[in-house]
């Protein structure tokens, strides 16, 4: 199957799962459930959960074995977006053409919504322990890996440095380090979640982690190019294209794309979708 | 051993563990680690982790078997305090005589610090899986229980209703329901964590949960009496003593204290410290 139809199909599956499994809007306290559904069911690309399902199929297994965990990762990703958009952080009014959570529900509810999404996302991941053929101790490993990828050495630490960038050296290494922690970490966790739940080999896990690290960097560089070209408010915050220009940034993103593809050569032709996804990451226009 | 010296000893143990296990202030990104240590190492009473250790000893086991999880629960408690104190929530400037986190580190860092404390707290709990004699599948159960106690049906949902109390009926049932979710839920989780990790019987677990529910309610009523008497800013927010007066509130707290003690009668004399702790909760003056 071609990547674009594969992604469309898997996006539909994950959207339906989220639609059904998230608390309904009329369930008390209804305001926070409305707020959660507003931010989660918003037409996102679902790249992270799709990656988790792709790993299951790469390993020759049914994607349903990792579906709750995949959905949980999407909730955790949404937690990070809702908190990052807050006035005291990036102060964003719009996300995907819709008002951001705090613009609709207010700051206090946006903070609590993010907290609840993190809690609920981890709960979805734990639910994966109920699936036949999944061992409970692999679920502990998955939870620990995700917590590590979220912690102050990774995603949250990246956000800490990102909001205090005025005090930092703005060179390529520093920016890549932030990209790695803010973006690659959770992408790696998406891949590793599928791999740990379905008992991939150590070599396979390492390959997928390198792949995730590289497409995460490429993804974030392209994201910043798109933001720059759409002329979004970016203050003077240094991003790759702001410092190095669009052309050089695109070159670097393509290098990471190629490194990503090389890193998973051990899977051979079975990894075809992963190669295509790496190309998609650097060629996307929005 | 008498309760007060028991609590002092266990507080020292938990404080030392936190002191040693939290990232050091000079570890990057140092600002968030300074902020975490500021809010955690602040002279708290450590009632929740002490309860977890008390359960271990009640079951005839070494408290060390539950120490990481106990410490994790204290971090999660601290997460809730740091977020609750934010300007857009309860807007508190002081906690235990010290400036609140956001007054020292700013709002953005306080939000990230809370997020990081929740992540780190759950990670501490997962670490408990490494302890000899603790099964990994009981750790999954513990994590799931804590996530349930934090979720929108419990602690976070209680906070949602608490900040939107203007729209609510302010009667005893409603206030008790908020107390139950905001305070009792995590106290129950502290007790149940010890019980699940050390394979208590279903009956024992139920007894401890009832005990936790009741001392949680008593604890929160007394807390509100203390706040009222210290004349803290409480706007017109309805609390038990504001609506029913101090005398009636004290009576209700004592009823809950007695119900708490009755609920654990199956443990007999071995639960002596639990009886004393229930009395301590309603007799404390700060």
Largest interface, Cβ cutoff 8 Å: A-B, 45 and 45 residues
Tell me the radius of gyration of chain A: 18 Å
Overall CATH class of chain A: Mainly Alpha
Count the beta strands of chain A.
2
Average pLDDT, all residues of chain A: 94
CATH fold description of chain A: Farnesyl Diphosphate Synthase
Can you list the strand order of the major beta sheet of chain A? 1-2
- Summing up helix and strand content along with how strands pair, one would put the structural category of chain A as mainly alpha
CATH superfamily of chain A: Farnesyl Diphosphate Synthase
| Proportion of strand residues of chain A | under 5%
Instruction: Supply the number of helical segments of chain A.
Output: 13
Helical coverage of chain A, percent range? 55-70%
**Major sheet of chain A: size, sense and barrel closure?**
2 strands, antiparallel
Q: Flag low-confidence runs of chain A.
A: none
Shape of chain A: globular
- Could you give the distance between the termini of chain A? 23 Å
Please, could you describe this protein's structure?
2 copies of one chain form a homodimer. The longest helix of chain A has 28 residues, at 202-229. In chain A, helix 7 (136-150) packs antiparallel against helix 9 (172-197), helix 10 runs parallel beside helix 13 and helix 12 runs antiparallel to helix 13. In chain A, strand 1 (94-95) and strand 2 form a beta hairpin. The first copy, chain A, has helices at residues 3-21, 30-40, 47-58, 67-84, 101-105, 107-127, 136-150, 155-163, 172-197, 202-229, 240-244, 246-263, 272-283; strands spanning 94-95, 98-99. Chain A has a single domain (3-283), classed as Farnesyl Diphosphate Synthase (Orthogonal Bundle), CATH 1.10.600. The two termini of chain A are 23 Å apart. The first copy, chain A, is globular and about 50 Å long. Chain A is mostly helical. Chain A has 13 helices and 2 strands. The relative contact order of chain A is 0.10. Chain A has a two-stranded antiparallel sheet. The A-B interface holds A 23, 28-29, 31-33, 36, 83, 86, 88-89, 106-109, 111-112, 114-116, 118-120, 122-123, 126, 129, 136-137, 139-140, 143-144, 147-148, 150-152, 156-157, 159-161, 163-164 and B 23, 28-29, 31-33, 36, 83, 86, 88-89, 106-109, 111-112, 114-116, 118-120, 122-123, 126, 129, 136-137, 139-140, 143-144, 147-148, 150-152, 156-157, 159-161, 163-164.
